[in-house]
Amino acid sequence: MQRLEENIAHLQRMIDELSDVVARQEATIAMLNRRVQLLMEAEAEREAMNTGNVLTGDKPPPHY
Q1: How confident is the model over 1-45, as pLDDT tens digits?
Q2: How far, in Å, CA of 12 to CA of 45, rounded?
Q3: Nearby residues of 57 by Cβ (< 8 Å), 6 or more positions away
Q4: Within 10 Å of residue 44's Cβ, how many Cβ atoms?
């Protein structure tokens, strides 16, 4: 019986640690997604200023 309780305690600790890891990864992914979005917007603005065309990422480039 004590062995089962030890195993349960160990598994509970692992679950808590994994939950913390997933929460940190979720925050990191959200931050990276926002940075990518900002970079895409900045690049679209830069491209529009250089060529007069607006690239939204919805259409493939002209060479396709």
Answers
A1: 999 999 999 999 999 999 999 999 999 999 999 999 999 999 999
A2: 50
A3: 40, 44
A4: 15
